[in-house]
Design a protein that fits this description.
Blueprint: E1 4-7, E2 10-13, E3 23-29, H1 34-44, E4 52-58, E5 63-69, H2 72-75, H3 79-82, E6 89-95, E7 110-114, E8 117-127, H4 130-139, H5 151-159, H6 165-173, E9 178-186, E10 190-194, E11 203-207, E12 210-214, H7 218-221, E13 226-230, E14 236-240, E15 243-247, H8 260-265, E16 271-272, E17 275-276, H9 277-291, E18 298-301, H10 307-317, E19 325-327, H11 340-346, E20 351-353, H12 355-358, E21 362-367, H13 374-385, E22 390-395, H14 417-420, H15 423-430, E23 434-437, H16 440-446, H17 462-465, H18 487-490
Parallel strand pairs: 18-21, 21-22, 22-23
Antiparallel strand pairs: 1-2, 3-6, 3-12, 4-5, 4-6, 7-8, 8-9, 9-10, 10-14, 11-12, 11-13, 14-15, 16-17, 19-20
Helix pairs in contact: 5-6, 9-10, 9-16
């Protein structure tokens, strides 16, 4: 249970006050240490999911699977575990659950024996028609082994009547809606696919004679691999002993990559869509300073995700940048708080004020986003208690007014602060002297585009605009709770 505190009628759940990413995927073909390389890649992708990790390998005869709850380093740093994953091909997955419980049967890659042989699949994203497809599969006799939306793809491929596996795989994709980046392994092929709008990222890399498909370029960097290119929206990449084939089975569509990859989710040292994530975040901060400069003595980032934007804000505004807030990176999610006194102290476990920087100063706090506002309450109060004379909050993204259904774990809309309060109401709620957000036009300007230009690239920005780029089939009628949980279907 995350730390909680009550301030009047406000319940603070600090661990839930962040948008959380869905998952990270990694696959490699034709490498003698495939599982070890995959474990390193997953380690680089750990920021995309910390609840569970798994690897499936193939040794030319058999598939081998290791799936565990917890962090990559807790399991896959052990040589004894890697030795149980022999073979020259492997796929891996790090998980933050947006559908299904955090239980071992939901940990990916999922694996099944089909009539054509073994099939392992790992998924980053969220299928917005998973419940609808699942119900039909169950009516037709399918027996589900997990509560994950990813499992529907296993059944769709298994039930396809087309002759070649790649054709069956593509046939299964045609039934899906939403956001997905799949990495799959058969006894002959490694397959990577990105949804028709390219909402979730996927890149192709090369390490010697080995090919890699993964969520971010930082996973290539850690193993010394070369970035080749992004997998295109709607593209199916098939890697086997003959090389690489590319299939584009969907009608051409204008790509709509997720803007939150740049704002929050991707690692700062990754390149997404040809852009440095770090540079984009600095640009967001600089644009924020142009729009909402504050009379202040020091710019303080909310670590870690607010750091690049704060650097950009400080450089543009001329206000000095200082580490006025220190984050403790060694706080586990299972920290036990047995008594109210310890619970009250627990709110300081993750962040603490740097009094030498804060005392007597007018502070500009820079964060990447504001969801419920509970973390902001804590940090603003912490700055005041450390002696700040004024606390001004600046958010390097527009107000989040709509929930996400593409794999980002956000609250229902009535729990989003910007959906239930106006700007002054939000300012009072968090207790700041002032509060401002980056405008939606400013967001696009920081990306190098004029949003008013009808030819500008369009991102998936529904959390700010309510413009959902795909059908939300499972949200029509009374389908179930947010993030398309399949638990009710499995019970």
């Amino acid at each position: 249970m995350a730390s909680e505190e009550h301030i009047g009628e406000v319940e603070l759940d600090f661990e839930s006050d962040r948008p959380r990413e869905e998952c990270g995927v990694f696959g490699i073909f034709n490498h003698p240490e495939a599982a070890a390389i995959t474990a390193l890649g997953l380690h680089a992708l750990q920021h995309r999911g910390q609840e569970a990790a798994g690897i499936v390998s193939y040794d030319g005869t058999r598939f081998h699977s290791e799936r565990r709850l917890g962090l990559v380093g807790d399991t896959f740093s052990k040589r004894s575990v890697i030795d149980r994953l022999p073979g020259s091909a492997a796929v891996g997955h790090v998980r933050y659950s947006t559908t299904g419980e955090t239980i071992l049967r939901n940990v990916q890659p999922l694996f099944s024996e089909l009539d054509a042989g073994g099939f392992a699949i790992a998924h980053n994203g969220n299928l917005t028609n998973a419940l609808t497809v699942r119900r039909q599969l169950v009516r037709d006799g399918a027996i589900m082994q997990s509560t994950s939306d990813t499992e529907v793809m296993l059944h769709l491929v298994a039930r396809s009547k087309l002759p070649r596996f790649v054709e069956r795989f593509i046939d299964g994709l045609r039934s899906l809606e939403g956001a997905y980046a799949f990495v799959s392994l058969t006894n002959k092929k490694l397959i990577g696919v990105r949804d028709p709008l390219g909402i979730r990222p996927l890149v192709l890399g090369r390490l010697g004679d080995s090919f890699i498909v993964t969520s971010e370029t930082c996973a290539l960097d850690i193993i010394g691999a070369r970035y080749v290119r992004d997998v295109e929206n709607g593209e199916v990449v098939v890697i086997d002993g003959e090389g690489i084939q590319s299939f584009k089975p969907f009608p051409p569509m204008t790509p709509r990559p997720c803007i939150f990859e740049y704002i929050y989710f991707a690692r700062p040292d990754s390149i997404i869509g040809g852009r440095s994530v770090y540079d984009v975040r600095k640009n967001l901060g600089a644009q924020l300073a142009r729009e909402h400069r504050a009379e202040a003595d020091v710019v303080v980032p909310v670590p870690d995700s607010g750091v690049p934007a704060a650097i950009g804000y400080a450089q543009e505004s001329g206000v000095p940048y200082e580490l006025g807030l220190i984050r403790n990176h060694y706080v586990g999610r299972t920290f036990i708080e047995p008594a109210q006194q310890i619970r009250e102290l627990g709110v300081r476990l993750k962040h603490s004020a740097n009094r030498a920087v804060v005392t007597g100063k007018r502070i500009v706090l820079i964060d990447d986003s504001l969801v419920r506002g509970t973390t902001s309450i804590k940090i603003v109060r912490m700055m005041r208690e450390a002696g700040a004379s004024e606390v001004h909050m600046r958010i390097a993204s527009p107000p989040i007014t709509h929930s996400d259904f593409y794999g980002i774990d956000t609250p229902e809309r009535d729990k989003l602060l910007a959906a239930t309060h106006d700007l002054e109401g939000m300012r009072k709620y968090i207790g700041a002297d002032s509060l401002q957000f980056l405008s939606i036009d400013g967001l696009y300007r920081a990306m190098g585009y004029n949003r008013r230009d009808p030819e500008h690239p369009q991102y998936t920005d529904h959390c700010f605009t309510g413009d959902y780029p795909t059908p939300l089939t499972d949200r029509q009628g009374e389908v179930g709770p947010k993030q398309l949980s399949l638990l009710a279907e499995a019970s």
